[in-house]
Specification:
The chain is an all-alpha fold. The chain has two domains: 330 residues, Serine Threonine Protein Phosphatase 5, Tetratricopeptide repeat; 184 residues, Serine Threonine Protein Phosphatase 5, Tetratricopeptide repeat (Alpha Horseshoe). It has 27 helices and no strands. α24 runs antiparallel to α25.
Length: 656
Amino acid sequence: MSQPHPTAVKPEPPVKDASINRPPPPPPSHAPTPQPPRVAVLTDLNVEPLDSDRQSTSFITGSRVINDENSQDKMSLMGNAEIMDTEASQLKRLGKFRSRNSKAEYPPDFNGADIDADQNGQGASTSREEKVSSLKTGLVHVARKMPKNVHAHFVLGLMYQRMGQPQKAILAYEKAAEILLRSEEEIDRPELLSLVQIHHAQCILLESLENCTSDKEIEPQELDEICSKLRESMKSDVRQASVWNTLGLMLLRTGRLQCAISVFSSLLDIVPNNLDCLGNLGIAYLQGGNLELSEKCFQDLVLKEQNHPAALINYAALLLCRYGSVVAGAGANADGRTSADQVAAANVAKECLLAAAKADPRAAHIWTNLANAYYLTGDHRTSGKCLEKAGKLEPSCLATRYAVGVHRIRDAERSQNPNEQLTWAGNEMASILREGDSVLIEPPVAWAGLAMVHKAQHEIAAGFDIEQNELLEVKERATYSLNQAIGEDPDDAVQWHQLGLHCLSTQQFKTSQTYLKAAVARRKESFYGWSNLGISLQLLEESSQAEEVYKHALSLATSKQGHTIFSNLGNFYRQLRKYECAKAMFAKSLELQPGYAPAYNNLGLVFVAEARWAEAKFCFNKAIETDPFLDAAKSNMIKAATMCKSDTGLASCISD
């Protein structure tokens, strides 16, 4: 089976070049018995449309990083990014922020002290409530009797903070800071003032988090206030950087990406050599899809501390994400030069992960990412062994099980009898959905994994003569799982794109157009989404719109991505019998990507249309030489030879 490639050319019914990298529903119970392939006829290049996003392989753990759209083809390359926070003691100092909210307000009558009993959340034991109430009453009493007792106000604030009542804690911290800011010599405690200011800012943050949804950024004014407190506290005590780093992590883990970046950046302006903060800023950029800034952070970190395990892991994850998001398969290969950057990046990632594994050999996520690195270099056997080791270290880890499922799908692509591998992969993906805690997994990713299996099963089944009802059942399973993934996250352009590709492969062109339009509406800069929309419009014979969409896709693509779109556009002109325009497009595709097999195949079809048999034979041979798995080129070669032999005057042109 073939792997996906960045943008596909127009698929046509007669010849199917199956590729298997996409999302999937429950594991297949029936696998079709392989039968001889159908007789091929002369057609366009029939590789699957762009599947560069079909694998949403971001891992399914809370600490892992997910990168945007290429997540489809980002074969779980990001793995579990290491959050760099070495100050466990500081975390303890911050307390455990519970979700209980109290509507009782801090009375304004006396220095922020409140003698009303706290109304703790339901479920807390009576004895604990009594102890907390007694402790608070005592602290309030001390604060009233000794209004200059900074520690009484500070500890009272800590107690409220631990109880999840940031509004009350803010008032207590403000009173403590007010006392410490007085010019009296006996209360000149800069370190304590720094600590009070830190907790004060944290409570402002907590109060903001309570008042907005999980994906809503903090208001600019509130963020400025937090950063202002940060700078004030750092001026008085630079040792508090680790606590501010923790504050940034709180923002990052609750979805306030831009706020987290602001806090980490502000902290680095003051202490540029804080390695934990630098690493976390890299993670924040990676989560936001800014791979260049993320790479810069991780490179700086590795240069400053070459043996930092988390830095090595995150830098490797970034490389795998950036350079391994699109992996060429049948119909997308070119000469060795095209994958040089990928191979170099994969080798660097591999060395980083081997060093990290040496430092911490029992970390399963390191072995999972190492498996991805080996896979990119073509060492499938070692990749499988790394996953086996990860599975033994953490057999119940959902991220590892997901990676194992993806690996089985990859194995099925190279297997002569893929049904068993796909059954195992389907069982693995389905078990994640059955057993996984919704807090620990990402349902859209889990459903995408299951859809990957079902799409692979459908592609295989479509290549054999099986009962129509069986083929329909496999198709419906794939459609169902893709719809489930969309239902979990309707704003995910990746899954809309996958569903559009599935409809293209099942010749539901009008439906495909609807889904692909939904995908590009959600991700307007997706060049491959626009390119595949062009294919859909072309198949519906909406020529003017198709040409416009192809050109828009070209405007979004880089020089390393445009060759696939030029090949598609060449196919478009060939079908309109504009052969000179078509040849110009294929020439441009081969200029950008020398040895691009689909372009050679499609150029051969132009020469067939012009009855230039020798040139057609050369192009088909070149396509097969470059990519032996490109069955469409083999089929077209046979058909062209037959057509040529029918003309006795030109029969010698194809004789060996």
